[in-house]
Design a protein that fits this description.
It comes from Oceanicella actignis. GO terms for molecular function: DNA binding; double-stranded DNA 3'-5' DNA exonuclease activity; endonuclease activity; metal ion binding. The chain is α+β, with helices and mostly antiparallel strands. The chain has six helices and twelve strands. The chain is globular and about 45 Å long. It binds one DNA strand through loops.
DNA sequence: ATGGTTGATCCTCAA
């Protein structure tokens, strides 16, 4: 089963690029972030025409997440547990069956947090703390589980082309990286780093200042695997070429092949 | 050091 994560930065503006990538990459499950769409205006039909079921958790204007899957999408949970007053659409999780078992796919869009310090950074850290609590519950189920999404965290200096440029950014501040590590150290496996120790692997290049042309990227989209999923990991890659396409998102897709 | 871009919307904000 090929499971992908892709921050598409607006599903309506990105529809041609999304459809082209779906046709080419043929993922079984996709976690989409920043759909910037309400559920009622999400362009379901052209995606369903390619053979995907669609589950959305959108809101007006910003944020918004969705799961696409060739097999049925079951037991859907919308919204990150832990704060019923949180109106931001940043979490959807569901179960998808494979040929040899099922996988729980959690699609997350963590808060950016800039400017830091400030209320947005406080919200980022509070959201990460809620994620930490829910991730522990998921791990305790001892099932194949994937935390797939835009984590808005650069885990290590080698995950940025120019780490010094990010030194005071919410994506790279010590507290942000510590929050990511606390979750990782519960027992999750960073799928990309499990198979690829090399430098220069990025998933995001800013639209500004020629970041793509100069390869000034960062790695902020991550697939974290429960041990039961990590045991079945066969491949993990970034579809970097998608960032160089027509009207691209500022993120590239990342995917893992699991023997499920 | 600064500036640079994109998307959705009610024209500025978020990234």
């Amino acid at each position: 089963m090929k499971i992908a994560s892709f921050n598409i930065n607006g599903v309506k503006a990105r529809l041609p690029a999304l459809l082209e990538w779906l046709r080419e990459a043929r993922p079984d499950v996709v976690a989409l972030q920043e759909i910037k769409s309400q559920d009622s205006t999400f362009p379901r039909e052209p995606i369903e025409d390619l053979g995907y079921n669609v589950a959305t958790h959108g809101q007006k204007g910003f944020n918004g997440v969705a799961i696409l899957a060739r097999r049925p999408i079951e037991d859907v949970v919308r919204g990150l547990p832990g704060d019923p007053d949180d109106a931001q659409a940043r979490w959807i999780e569901a179960t998808v069956a494979g040929e040899a078992g099922a996988v729980r796919v959690c699609c997350l869009y963590a808060p950016n947090g800039n400017p830091a310090p400030g209320p947005k950074y406080d919200y980022k850290l509070a959201w990460m703390a809620r994620l930490e609590a829910h991730a522990a519950e998921l791990l305790a189920r001892e099932e194949p589980t994937v935390l797939a999404g835009d984590w808005n965290v650069i885990p290590q200096p080698e995950d940025a082309a120019d780490p010094e440029a990010w030194r005071e950014d919410a994506l790279f501040l010590p507290q942000s990286r510590a929050a990511f590590r606390r979750i990782l150290h519960q027992g999750w496996w960073d799928a990309l780093r499990t198979l690829h120790p090399e430098k220069g692997l990025y998933t995001f290049w800013d639209y500004q200042a020629g970041a793509w042309r100069r390869d000034h990227g960062i790695r902020i989209d991550h697939l974290l695997l429960s041990p039961q999923a990590a045991d079945r990991l066969r491949a993990c890659e970034i579809d970097r070429h998608v960032r160089g396409g027509e009207k691209p998102s500022d993120h590239a897709p990342i995917w893992a092949e699991l023997e499920i």
